[in-house]
Amino acid sequence: MLIKYRVCFDCDNVLNDLTAKMLTVYNARNGTDYAPDVFQHYDMERCVPPDAAKDMTLLFTDDEVLGGLEPPPDAYDVLFFLHKEGHEVFIASNTDYRAAERKAVYLLRCFPFLTPERIIFIANKPLLGVDFLIDDDPGNFKNGLFTRILRTQPWNTASEVSFDHRIDRLNEVIPIIMERQKAESARANSLF
Ligand SMILES: [Mg+2]
Q1: Please, what CATH class does the domain formed by 6-16+71-190 belong to?
Q2: Which of 33, 57, 92, 173 could disulfide-link 120, Cβ–Cβ 3.0 to 4.6 Å?
Q3: How far is the centre of ligand 1, averaged over its atoms, from the C-alpha of 169 (Å)?
């Protein structure tokens, strides 16, 4: 018998391109030329002038930004594979309540095999009782009991918060999960 897991993905900048879309809209409206690698830290105010950071934060709930979100090319295949294999796939997002409904609609459109109760809006992700969390904000890993998988983004390359795995592409989660599944299933089966 193979052990099944609860696998939880962050939404923003893991299952969408929120920061890139936000900058596209910001640049168009302000005549600037920011690219996502301007954010070398998760705190935007440390990376761009305070007024720009404030305006950019407001854009995270902007209709044009939210309406243009797109998933990474391999996201559907990765989540569907895990779902099909019998794992419970969740998505946990620390989203402003004003954007929550639109995010949920986006996620259910991208991943139609998931049901609405698999989408969790939560600010304190270490409370989650899941086996894996895939996130781009290392702050969400502090004191979490899950396996911490950091999705590389410019703002976490210098992170000092510890994590278990770093991935550059979403499909790299599959061998990580399967390896643990193989080891733990073999151990569990040897007990019987
Ligand atoms: Mg995120």
Answers
A1: alpha beta
A2: 92
A3: 14
